[in-house]
Amino acid sequence: MSKERNTASPRPEKLLAVKGMNDILPPESARWEWLEAKVHELMARYAYRSIRTPIVEPTPLFVRSLGEVTDIVEKEMYSFEDRLNAELLTLRPEATAGVVRAVVEHSMLYDGGKRLYYMGPMFRHERPQRGRYRQFHQVGAEALGFPGAEVDAELILLAHALWRELGLQDVRLEINSLGEPHERRAHRAALIAHLERHIDALDEEARRRLHSNPLRILDTKNPAMQAIVEAAPRLLDFLGDASRAHFDAVQSILSANGVAWTVNPRLVRGMDYYNLTVFEFVTDRLGSQGTICGGGRYDYLVEQVGGKAAPAVGWALGIERVLELLGEQDRAPPGLVPDAYAIIPCVAVLPLAMRTIERLRQQGVSVQMHAAPAGGEGMGSMKSQFKKADASGALYALVFGEEESSRGMVTVKSLRDGVGAQVERPLDTIAQWSGTLQSAC
Fold first, then answer.
1. Crossing angle for the helix pair 319-328 and 28-45, nearest 10 degrees?
2. Is the pLDDT of residue 369 over 50?
3. Where does the Aminoacyl-transfer RNA synthetases class-II family profile domain start and stop, copy by copy (predicted)?
């Protein structure tokens, strides 16, 4: 007997997500939605309005705004050439530059300052590790057109209020002032002179940055250089009266609102566009990736992007880091669960059951409907359906038995009271009893 040839095609190789770009699956996605809802609610209280900018921007936008010698521009941007237009494009590594570009392009400051916020994915080509991903997500708040220290303080208070709303603890605020360009130039000269006196002790990265971006050397994590950094001239000592007064005003407002802070004279942030106030919210609970929110004033960026000079200040927080910190503190919100799970013993009651389920949903009740299992016959056994109902986390099971349905009734069974109490409810009085099914009741 001849063997029959197997003509089935081989199964294609399984495709995986790009390393460092993660799927967000239920129930984790529900925690993201919970955090996003908190952000939307809080931003509205502070009169900040949502802005949504493209994920892809012209590469020169980031080179011009972030600085050619920053790590982001030199090493981390996902850039490519648009083959159709021969245009250099980049997946946004941060959102402030894009927000400023949009404000300038659409002349949004013509009638006064704007308070804006955003949330969405950013992209940086770096080695994935705890709290650092190639696709990561940020929430940011930007206030453009306001020069006063009170707006710096307002933004810090906004972030502080978010920690309170989320129940976050063990987060400390560090602040500093980078002064104005002429003050930084004087400090830069003194800093270079100091570092040149210790040139033999500088690592390769510090030597490379010595004359291009010496301020970033102060942010080094190299233990062998800490003594040199600690002995370096402090930018705070080069501030003039106006810069000092601005910084003092920020501190005064924070203190008046009971917000604790410490001055960190080595805090410089990673982008070239900052001036005056800079700040970070830091925790020790996430190891080396302890900064969960950072920002500052960037009064010269609007002009750099091609607009009329205008002051601005803002911050961004990492959603992944905030959620991880919530988990570290056992404050992660539970995944969303339905109010009720509809158990449908047989196909015959499906029309009535689905009509009832839809009416309940219109009343604001969250209902998960049981569906026929793949490869099986009918709707599946009652035992298996109750297992799924229990696993869903629902408070109640709605049992659409044939006999009850013929009488216009449904059995409502409690899944969380420990005794499984149940009662029949008439289907024609949904509006009267649907509220008892909701988790909030």
1. 110
2. yes
3. 1-345
- Residue 298 in domain: yes
Same domain, 245 and 290: yes
Model pLDDT for residues 13-39, shown as the tens digit of each residue: 999 999 999 999 988 898 999 999 999
Q: Work out how many domains the chain is built from and give that number.
A: 2
Same domain for 52 and 148, yes or no, is yes
Cα 44–chain centre separation: 17
Residue 271 has pLDDT above 70, yes or no: no
Tell me how far the alpha carbon of residue 295 is from its chain's centroid.
Answer: 14
- Say how many C-beta atoms besides its own lie within 10 A of residue 306's C-beta: 12
Report for 69-78, 161-170, 247-256, 375-384: range of highest mean pLDDT: 247-256
Residues 142 and 264 in one domain: yes
- Residue 375 clears pLDDT 80, i.e. is over it: no
Q: Rounded CA gap, 421 and 438, in Å?
A: 16
Instruction: Provide, rounded to the nearest whole percent, the portion of the chain with pLDDT above 70.
Output: 94
* 213 part of a folded domain: no
DSSP string, 62-90: HHHHH-TTSHIIIII-EEEEETTTTEEEE
Angle, vertex CA 287, rays to CA 282 and CA 290, nearest 5: 20
Could you tell me the residue range of the domain that residue 305 belongs to? 28-179+239-328
Domain CATH code at residue 319: 3.30.930.10
Using the 8-state DSSP alphabet, how is residue 5 labeled?
P
pLDDT class for 440, splitting at 50, 70, 90? very low
Q: Quick: pLDDT tens for 52-73.
A: 999 999 999 998 888 776 778 8
Q: Considering 328, 361, 385, which residue would you say is the last residue of a domain? A: 328
What is the pTM (predicted TM-score) of this model?
A: 0.85
- CA-to-CA distance for 364 and 430, rounded, in angstroms? 11
Q: Higher model confidence: residue 102 or residue 420?
A: 102
In sequence order, the 6+-apart residues with CB closer than 8 A to the CB of 417 are none
Give the count of beta carbons closer than 10 Å to the beta carbon of residue 24: 14
DSSP string of 102-117? Answer: HHHHTTTTTTS-EEEE
Cis previous bond, 27, omega within 30? yes
Same domain assignment for residues 298 and 361:
no
Q: In terms of domains, do 103 and 63 share one?
A: yes
Final residue belonging to a domain, choices 299, 328, 357: 328
Q: Which helix (H) or strand (E) holds 367?
A: strand 367-369
In a domain, 318, yes or no: yes
Q: Does one domain contain both 133 and 270?
A: yes
Confidence of residue 3 (pLDDT cuts 50, 70, 90): low
